[in-house]
Amino acid sequence: MEMRLRFLRRDEAGIGVTLLVEPSVSRYDELTGIRASRIGSENALLIDTEFVPEALYGAVNLIYDIERTRERGAFATERGSTAGIGGALTYRVLPNLFLGGEARYLRAYEGLGLNRYQGEAVYLGPTLFAAITPRLTVTVAYSIQVAGNEALDRRSLAASILAGDEPGLIRRSSLNLVNFERHQARLKIVYDF
Which listed residue, of 67, 112, 133, 185, carries a Cα 20 to 30 Å from 42's Cα? Predict the structure, then answer.
């Protein structure tokens, strides 16, 4: 289910501002595939504008997602949150076809209230929007993680220092595959009744 609350309309104010709330419930952990009780919500403040009338559009999204997961048979419950910012540009190449690109910077936290930093990731990728009919639209987005780091716990930090690394020069991997996926894809088909 997806809920949107529009505060400003782009055609009236020159800028569009919309609050997006997308709650979800699942019986599986989406990263591991293990049976679990999962409740979450993807939330974003969507800000968009038109740079060139009916041709070039831009958007900035402020992201705050929360999730609570308990694996089947486990007593402990994991709580996590993600905060981030994304930007996108899209251009009308045909009357009913838009192509664009997006970039997103995300930070993962332990706890629902951005309690303890866990890592970060940067995604880049193309987007496509097609109006098949006046009532049927298709949106496709694909992003790949191009940079990221996971937080070092105290034990890892101490081991790096003992190995001769200076705290400011601790080597990390170039991607964060602990907290984030390498690839993200989204297909959205909308039919208005």
Answer: 133
CA–CA separation, 117 vs 133, rounded Å? Answer: 45
160 three-class SS: helix
φ, ψ at 30 (rounded to 5°): -70, -20
Q: What's phi and psi for 168, nearest 5 deg?
A: -80, -10
Residue 175 amino acid letter: L
Three-class DSSP category at 72? coil
Global pTM exceeds 0.85: no
CA-to-CA distance for 80 and 117, rounded, in angstroms?
10
Q: What is the DSSP letter of 45?
A: E
Residue 2 Cα distances to 19, 30, 33, 180, angstroms: 11, 19, 23, 23
CB 49 within 8 A of CB 15: yes
Tens digit of each residue's pLDDT (9 = 90 or more) over 68-124: 988 887 888 889 999 999 999 999 999 999 999 999 999 999 999 999 999 999 999
